[in-house]
């Protein structure tokens, strides 16, 4: 197979059959975290890089192979929408199977009406947004000349207005780069305007071309989940589990955690469940004791209840 790989197990898309439409590496950006390495030469012109009939034949071979496939995912060795003819491929796949189709894209070409039109029949489109300001956008995504932050945001916004499928924006969180409170609030403001159905928070877990790229610690990730939840529900696939040492110092332990980042109520309940072996009466009693202490207040954000420490 030249174009199709998998199905691979994906946290977000289950068993995902990948379809790579591009010669490596063809991209409009040069992200600091790119697992394909640095972009040696930008590619900005859209083309049918490989014959679409050959790509379709491989997809149909895999679909009829009997393997479990939850999603057919167009994803490139670079920017997927550089491939001209995505609409034809999506339409032909849909004629042949009911398996939903996803397109993973950096979103940089969504400012072009023809690109937006080519994606309309996809079941899910997952563009990237890694910054809420032009300055940070340039530092993280290092786009080709002409691919400005404003153009990127405008493309996402317009696509949101025209598209009826699932619109899941992917945010790559990088330690020390876009994980500060200020950066996250800027991003949340921009995301609130774009109105994605969901935000997928991802980490640079694979080797990056720049040595300074690192994974934020769990506290900062939790803070990011909380701040970004103001714009849309946040899916954080690699989320860690909250652990409570013992029942003796429960109030101090939970206060200590909530002082550093908001605590999701259902996570707190799950942690108490572990502590008390699922004893519902003890869990309820502990929750009531914590609330009665007066140290916490509950905040609703992105459909989730969080506990935060009351300011003095
Ligand atoms: S958009 Fe994707 S392929 Fe392009 S440089 Fe960034 S991470 Fe790499």
From TrEMBL:
- Entries under CDD domains matching the protein: Radical_SAM (cd01335)
Q: Name one GO molecular function term.
A: metal ion binding
The protein's required cofactor(s) are namely:
[4Fe-4S] cluster
Q: Does the keyword 4Fe-4S apply?
A: yes
- Keyword field: 4Fe-4S, Iron, Iron-sulfur, Metal-binding, S-adenosyl-L-methionine
Tell me yes or no: is 4Fe-4S among this UniProt entry's keywords. yes
PROSITE patterns given in the database record: RADICAL_SAM
Q: Which SUPFAM superfamilies does the record match to this protein?
A: Radical SAM enzymes
The record's annotation in InterPro entries points to: Aldolase_TIM, Elp3/MiaA/NifB-like_rSAM, GTPase_Obg, rSAM, rSAM_sf
Record domain Radical SAM core: where = 13-238
The molecule here is called Radical SAM protein
